[in-house]
Each structure stands twice: as structure tokens, then as C-alpha cells.
Specification:
alpha/beta, FAD/NAD(P)-binding domain, D-Amino Acid Oxidase, Chain A, domain 2, 25% strand
């Protein structure tokens, strides 16, 4: 009998899991509360284990072709002069800009295109309740429809509304960093570098290229105020205008584009849970383990989808499969969550003296980048290679299509 998975969340982890389960003979239904596939979002990188997973999925080349064309990171001063420069990495591990750099929306689109013919997508829909019967789960959707599934996977974001139906009581640590992500018109002065500017008041402004003819901007700041991500757009725009009114460099240009720019604002947090599953219900992605800034969210989501599907293929006992899924992923997640508050403060200086230290550190890191060790590695090298990725062979019918690469040991 064909097994059925109900997945909640159509960003990266959900469609990636649908792809992996479809390839192994599962039927999948995916619900997403947004009215459509979300194409908003900034540059994301795929490194280490995530890159291997894309290769095994047959998506690596398509992702490379759809890359943002970003050539590296420049730390700039108020007049736009370069303070430090970090060219893109020449492999899938090193550098602030990875070799495989892609817009979140573009990767989501690629995954959707590969799954839409085999997955029942339900937009403007979400899970309201779950009833685990032991041999199956019955999900009640917001529309009132009831769906039976062998497994329910919540692959949502940091502030998941469905997480408590799987594992209640998540420990959420607010980092204090708020970031607004915008898409603004490209100008002739924009180049292919990620240009990043900071003031001495924790204010950060950055401009990054994309492959769609626009520029991706970020406005960031540290604050003790909580709940800003829940404000409506008008209040968020007013907040950003007041906060960045005299920030300098490209801030006026970004503020001028606020009224018409696609934008979302997020307060960065980490999520920790003692377990990721209950019965036939399981969490995947940020809903289970949001890592906060400098994390490896995309790589973790792709890797987790591959591991979960692979373990479910190895055994018909969901308890064994979910236990193995956590056993493989837990060390990787723990390493990715090792983000110290001191590092966040270093990157977001709050005084003129702290800004001077910030720029000195970046200059020193730039000087070490050829050896890429010590300080540079601590700043820009996420632990994307520190996981042992088992060889989850696809069924023979899929292997003939070239979807499976040789197994790789990472770490």
C-alpha cells in the first residue's frame, strides 16, 4: 500500500521532503497558508551536506545556473569605500558568499517545479488539529477538511503556528536582531558584490545582487523590543523610516523604495526542543531548530528532508525511522546553533569604539582569507560539512534517471 505524508510548509524543507518521498513511492499532500508560492526572500547559500543533497536530487546544475552572480562580500564605510573584501568561495564550504548562492524564492520555485506533478499542493490552507490514532494520523484543516496520513511533517518557520501540535513548549531564544528584507530597483552603480555597511548604533544596511535585474536590500538593527515582526506593514515602514533616517550610505535609497518594495521583517530567534517527533508527527527545519544568524538554515532543511525520507525508506517502523532521523541530524543542528552573543554584537557595533573594533576585525579576517583559518573561519564558515550523510539509495527506477550520486562522507 502506498504510504501518504501530509506536509505543512511550502518554503524549502517541505517541497524538498515531498521530492524525496515521491522518489521513494510515497503520496504527498502539502498545505501552505500563503495564497501562492512565495517568491520573496534574500540570497541563501547551499553548502556541504546541502550541496550533496541537491546533487543527489538532480538539482545542483539547475541551482548553479539560477545563481545570484554574487562575487563576494565587501564591508564598506559611510562613503561606500571598501574596508575589507572577501571574494566568493571556490568550493561549497568557504567564504561568506558560497559558490552556490541562490535566491530563496528561486530555489523554492525549482523544488516546486520538480514536485507539482506528484504532490497535491493546497495553498491558503493550514492544519488546525491533529489526532494520532497510532496506525495513522487524522489532520483537520482550516477549511474543515479531514485528511488521513501515515505521517504528518511540520516544515514551517521559526514562529510556526503548528509546532505545538507535534512537540509543545518550544524554547525560543530571541537574539535581539531585527532584519527587514527588501527588493528594490537596480541602479547602474550596483555591482555584483554584497556591499555591507554598519553604523555605531547597531544599524546595518546591505545591498546584494540577484539574477532577476533587481537588488536585494537588508536593514538590520539590534533591539530589546519584542514583537516587531507582528506589526502590520505600515507600522513596520514607519519604524524603519525613523530608525534609519540618518543612518548614512545607501539608507536613504532603501527608505525611498519602502512604499513599493516587496518586504518582510523578521526578528531573529533560535528554537530548541528536547525531541522533534511525537508518534507519527515530526518537525523539520526552522520549526524544529531555528539556528539564528549566521546559521545554515537552507542546508539543514535540505539535509533533513533527505535524511528523513532515507530513514523512512529503510524501515516500515516509523519509530525507528524518526529516531534515526534525529540521531543523524542532532549533532549537525547543535553545531549550527553555536552562535555566541559576542559574535552578534561584534558584527552589529553599538558605539564608535565598537565600530572601530568591528572594522579592524574585518580587515584582519580579510588578511587571513587565503589561509581561511582562525578569525576568518569563525566569522564566515558555517559548519555545513560537519555531518556524516548516509548513502540513501533511491529505488532502481530512479537510479536509472541519474538522480543518485555516490555517497559522501562530510566532516
Amino acid at each position: 500500500m502506498t504510504r501518504h505524508a501530509l506536509i505543512s510548509g511550502a518554503s524549502i524543507g517541505g517541497p524538498a521532503l515531498a521530492h524525496e518521498l515521491n522518489a521513494r513511492g510515497w503520496r504527498t499532500t502539502l498545505v501552505e497558508r500563503a495564497p501562492r508560492l512565495r517568491d520573496e526572500g534574500q540570497n541563501i547559500d547551499v553548502r556541504g551536506a546541502g550541496r550533496v543533497v541537491l546533487r543527489r536530487m538532480g538539482l545542483e546544475e539547475a541551482a548553479l545556473v539560477t545563481g545570484t552572480t554574487e562575487v563576494g562580500l565587501r564591508i564598506v564605510g559611510e562613503q561606500g569605500r571598501t574596508v575589507a573584501e572577501f571574494p566568493a568561495g571556490e568550493n561549497d564550504i568557504d567564504g561568506p558568499t558560497a559558490e552556490l548562492e541562490i535566491l530563496r524564492g528561486e530555489l523554492a520555485r525549482l523544488l516546486h517545479e520538480r514536485t507539482v506533478d506528484h504532490t497535491d499542493y493546497r495553498f491558503e490552507e493550514q492544519i488546525r488539529d491533529l489526532d494520532d490514532h497510532g496506525d495513522h494520523v487524522t489532520a483537520t484543516l482550516a477549511s474543515g477538511e479531514r485528511i488521513d496520513a501515515d505521517l504528518v511533517v511540520v516544515a514551517e518557520g521559526t514562529r510556526s503556528r503548528t509546532r505545538d501540535l507535534v512537540v509543545p513548549g518550544a524554547e525560543m531564544t530571541e537574539v535581539g536582531l531585527v532584519i527587514a528584507y527588501l527588493t528594490i530597483p537596480r541602479t547602474p552603480e550596483d555591482d555584483r558584490w554584497w556591499n555591507w555597511y554598519h553604523t555605531e548604533r547597531t544599524l546595518g544596511v546591505s545591498l546584494r545582487p540577484d539574477n532577476l535585474g533587481t537588488t536585494r536590500a537588508m536593514l538590520s538593527f539590534m533591539t530589546d523590543v519584542r514583537g516587531l515582526e507582528r506589526l502590520d506593514r505600515d507600522d513596520q515602514v514607519m519604524l524603519l523610516r525613523r530608525t534609519f533616517a540618518d543612518a548614512g550610505w545607501a539608507a536613504p535609497r532603501v527608505l525611498d523604495a519602502l512604499d513599493d518594495a516587496p518586504m518582510y521583517l523578521d526578528a531573529v530567534a533560535q528554537v530548541r526542543l528536547p525531541r522533534w517527533s511525537t508518534g507519527r508527527r515530526v518537525l523539520l527545519g526552522d520549526a524544529a531548530w531555528a539556528t539564528g544568524p549566521f546559521g545554515t538554515g537552507t542546508t539543514l532543511a535540505l539535509t533533513a528532508a533527505h535524511v528523513l525520507a532515507g530513514e523512512l525508506e529503510r524501515t516500515a517502523d516509523h519509530r525507528v525511522a524518526l529516531g534515526r532521523y534525529e540521531e543523524v541530524m542532532r549533532p549537525f543542528v547543535a553545531k549550527a546553533q553555536e552562535v555566541k552573543l559576542s559574535t552578534i554584537r561584534l558584527v552589529n557595533p553599538s558605539s564608535r569604539a565598537a565600530l572601530a573594533v568591528n572594522q579592524t576585525v574585518f580587515r584582519a579576517a580579510a588578511g587571513l582569507q587565503n589561509r581561511f583559518g582562525g578569525l576568518a573561519a569563525k566569522l564566515f564558515r558555517p559548519p555545513a560539512d560537519q555531518v556524516d550523510l548516509p548513502d540513501y539509495a533511491l529505488p532502481a527506477r530512479e537510479e536509472k534517471g541519474g538522480l543518485v550520486a555516490p555517497s559522501a562522507r562530510l566532516g
